[in-house]
């Protein structure tokens, strides 16, 4: 809106001037009054009588013109002063609600993101810009990879309270990138970031409590942290917590809660959750049974290169459960799963009666799919 100010002001002046002109055009003519007689002592004019009659009219007309001009001058607004243009701000100092740095990063304009983030970090002490610089240096995006500089920028952003920087710094310390391995500091950083609501920090801290190596094993604490991350929308945490509820690990066993969490994670395209939720739908475990929906979800996960889903889909296609029987299609998915190293002897037996022609069709379809979808 600031850029519209001078334009609006100019339009306003034009409207005022037009109003004054219109007013002048409809003002009635000034009444003509006879000129006062000259005093007796004034010398008589030698002009002709016609000239004497015309003189008062000319004087009255001039007076009317002068009066009208004065009115116009008074009514016309003064011209607006030309505003002094202010220097255009650098893109790094634009409206903070428009994150140009992150926008450039998302579009793959890493050099632009680096330049903008450097300006913000230098002149604004912007923690988010510092975190972005850590990300760019850590991954070699728009600049040569430098774990040392990444660690420094993450540290500065972390000290300024940025939770994402705390998480990234923790992961670098666990991996020993940019410096020696320091799991103790990493755990502290993860805990601080989790308290600030960083779901990735809560999820990874939960795994450390579950693993029992870096931290003493504590499944209840792990479940609490997974719940924090799941509530924040982390599909990985939703899937892991669903497994906890399914098995009763750190929480009371609850198949309905497990199914709801699997559904949420599946909707976020978590492939493992898609497979598990499809199985729950197929068997009616913790959720109403829905075999057609289960088969559709298995198909989605199979197309996402899940060998488990591919073999599960092959099973239902082989027997026609919830879907028309199609052994050729079943063998196709089974071959694809075996190519990924996931065999299934039961399927081998179920599909052994296919004719050579059907087997050839399945093999050709599998080769085509693998060629188009597996890199």
How would you characterize this protein structure?
It is globular and about 70 Å long. It starts with a helix and ends with a helix. With 375 residues, the chain is an all-alpha fold. Among the domains are: 100 residues, Tetratricopeptide repeat domain (Serine Threonine Protein Phosphatase 5, Tetratricopeptide repeat, Alpha Horseshoe); 66 residues, Serine Threonine Protein Phosphatase 5, Tetratricopeptide repeat (Alpha Horseshoe), CATH 1.25.40; 86 residues, no CATH class. It is built from 18 helices and no strands.
Shape: globular
Number of helices in the DSSP assignment: 18
Distance between the termini: 50 Å
Strand content: under 5%
* CATH homology superfamily name of the domain at 97-196: Tetratricopeptide repeat domain
**What is the CATH level 1 assignment of the domain at 97-196?**
Mainly Alpha
Q: Looking at CATH, which topology of the domain at 97-196 would you report?
A: Serine Threonine Protein Phosphatase 5, Tetratricopeptide repeat
How would a textbook summarize the main sheet?
A: none
What are the low-pLDDT stretches, counting only 5+ consecutive residues below 50?
A: 1-61, 74-97
What's the quaternary structure here?
single chain
The pLDDT mean sits at 81
What is the β-strand count? Answer: 0
Radius of gyration: 41 Å
Helix and strand sequence = HHHHHHHHHHHHHHHHHH
What is the helix fraction of residues, given as a range?
A: 55-70%
- From the coordinates shown, what is the CATH architecture of the domain at 97-196? Alpha Horseshoe
Broad structural category: mainly alpha
């Amino acid at each position: 809106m600031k850029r519209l100010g001078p334009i609006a002001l100019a339009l306003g002046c034009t409207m005022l001037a037009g109003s004054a002109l219109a007013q002048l055009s409809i003002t009635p003519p000034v009444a003509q009054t006879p000129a006062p007689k000259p005093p007796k002592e004034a010398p008589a004019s030698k002009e002709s009588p016609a000239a004497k009659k015309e003189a008062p009219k000319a004087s009255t007309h001039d007076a009317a013109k002068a009066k009208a001009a004065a009115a116009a001058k008074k009514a016309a607004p003064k011209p607006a002063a030309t505003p002094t243009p202010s220097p255009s701000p650098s893109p790094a100092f634009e409206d903070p609600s428009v994150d140009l740095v992150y926008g450039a990063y998302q579009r793959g304009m890493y050099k632009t993101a680096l330049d903008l983030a450097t300006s913000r970090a230098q002149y604004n002490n912007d923690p988010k810009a510092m975190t972005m610089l850590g990300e760019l240096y850590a991954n070699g995006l728009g600049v040569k990879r430098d774990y040392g500089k990444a660690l420094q920028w993450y540290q500065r952003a972390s000290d300024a309270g940025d939770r994402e920087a705390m998480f990234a710094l923790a992961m670098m310390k666990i991996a020993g990138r940019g410096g020696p391995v320091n799991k103790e500091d990493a755990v502290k950083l993860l805990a601080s970031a989790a308290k600030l609501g960083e779901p990735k920090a809560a999820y990874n801290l939960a795994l450390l409590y579950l693993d029992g190596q870096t931290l003493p094993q504590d499944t209840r604490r792990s479940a609490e942290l997974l719940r924090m991350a799941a509530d924040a929308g982390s599909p990985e945490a939703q899937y892991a917590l669903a497994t906890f509820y399914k098995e009763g690990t750190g929480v009371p066993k609850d198949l309905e809660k497990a199914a709801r969490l699997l559904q949420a994670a599946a909707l976020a395209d978590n492939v493992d959750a898609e497979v598990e939720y499809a199985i729950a739908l197929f068997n009616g475990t913790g959720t109403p049974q829905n075999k057609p929906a289960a088969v559709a979800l298995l198909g989605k996960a199979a197309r996402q290169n899940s060998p488990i889903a591919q073999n599960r889909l092959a099973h239902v296609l082989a027997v026609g459960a919830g879907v028309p029987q199609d052994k050729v299609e079943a063998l196709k998915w089974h071959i694809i799963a075996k190519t990924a190293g996931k065999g299934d002897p039961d399927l081998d037996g179920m599909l052994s009666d296919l004719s050579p022609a059907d087997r050839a069709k399945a093999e050709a379809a599998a080769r085509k799919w693998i060629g188009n979808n597996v890199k």
